[in-house]
């Protein structure tokens, strides 16, 4: 949710911290702050409501003194406890101690009462401020910074990642991880920390990921990690293959548009090295895959947001093509409903970031049962879900910076199609059929490219939606989750209220909403359900609703009064969900641009949700 950056160096770390925050802005962005230790061994605190650029302006107006700022922590906040305001922004300070925090300290009220009684004055409504005061309180009782942090975290219930500095011990920075991600970045004579390695790519590509319950100390000459029992622990050093520039916007006005246009390449990357001569290679799932997949009798999928929509599409495929029973749950519901998880279950999580708290907890819950195996479909190679799953199937979409997910979704679909074919082969899919499907997967990039050429048409169409208050999306079969995804895109970035329904449900309620003010957007490829969709659409027209139909160019839909048909390339049914998602992404994008919203960072949302 929030983003943390920290650094210890022999130079002023402020620019590194601010650049790190910029790169983490996707995690949350209602306020930001930096604390460094200045030359007089005092904390220099700068905080600002709004975006990181506002913090950078505040820092430029009042920079730390020359020769100072060799240790510091920084934070970009997405409000949980307390409104977005400077007093609630991090870092939180208690005399010499400054703390940044991601997550929630659930017993903060009890600690607040205790610290207030001990004479500490609270300036914010946040749960984080208790951490600063408690650590300072323990230092006042004679503990050094590390012991104080160690003892403080023993008192916290909840999930957190913490970075702590003290002006009286300016040579080291303390980190603690429980439930929220944190990594250490290794430089030469300098050491860094961040919620996500992306923040540190301009300064290093060597990372150490903290495990659950770890406490770490970083210094200019290295680092030390202690496990939950306080014993020194070794964690693997990983070299990141991501490059610092891959995340740049290039000629595009927004990351979202760039990422939409990257989809042909991203889809090809998902397939690369995974198919050969009309055959899906099982080996790319790792050495254990064959043995694990052999035990699979059913599939359970858990994911959130856009990733859950990918799971809903996959359910149709897994049941229809692989003939394996498949259930899909929103991860946030799954973990709390005491689900029956039978032996032989293949547990699939889907997550762009690999850090979504609900998805991670769903996996952890499933792992307590006798599942056959866990697979994560993920875009973040060094993430928690990747580390905790038996098998990780990386989508290779490249960094996705826009909060509204685009290429992550279509590449998740591609990865899920590969898993479907592997399962289907074990259930008797013929080599000939497999070859047919593989050929259609290989054609997806080119078809998506064709749809992207319709960008101008969609831009024009967007003008018709900007004054609408509501929109209805309809689809059947795999196009139902595609419609859900189209509605989600429109609402998250244009703030137009949008709902999606399975087309057959129209007359069971939503039809009551249809009048000349309600645009109805239908995704209707030429599949076996086409005729049914056509009659649903008649029902809309009969009530004066304006129809926008995305249909196969050969489907026989005609433009007419109140009906706009956008012809889509003819493709195999398997890849239709990837293709029909594209115009819905572009439509939402252009509506948002015309409405002047913050396309890449829509209000109230965050790219990576690491709290419940
Ligand atoms: C947030 C993002 C969505 C994303 C969802 C799940 O809400 O804004 O775009 O679909 O989290 O994230 P994940 O990283 O698990 O796919």
TrEMBL record:
Compartments, as annotated in UniProt: Cytoplasm
InterPro entries: GATase_2_dom (IPR017932), GFAT (IPR005855), GFAT_N (IPR047084), GlmS/AgaS_SIS (IPR035466), GlmS/FrlB_SIS (IPR035490), Ntn_hydrolases_N (IPR029055), SIS_dom (IPR001347), SIS_dom_sf (IPR046348)
UniProt keywords, alphabetically: Aminotransferase, Cytoplasm, Glutamine amidotransferase, Repeat, Transferase
Active site positions: 2, 607
One BP term from GO: UDP-N-acetylglucosamine metabolic process
Gene Ontology molecular-function annotations: carbohydrate derivative binding; glutamine-fructose-6-phosphate transaminase (isomerizing) activity
One family name in Pfam for this protein: GATase_6
EC number: 2.6.1.16
Glutamine amidotransferase type-2 domain sequence ranges: 2-221
Catalytic activities: D-fructose 6-phosphate + L-glutamine = D-glucosamine 6-phosphate + L-glutamate
GO CC aspect terms: cytosol
Record's signal peptide: none
Residues annotated as domain SIS: 289-429, 461-602
Known function: Catalyzes the first step in hexosamine metabolism, converting fructose-6P into glucosamine-6P using glutamine as a nitrogen source.
Subunit structure: Homodimer.
Protein name as annotated: Glutamine--fructose-6-phosphate aminotransferase [isomerizing]
Gene that produces this protein: glmS
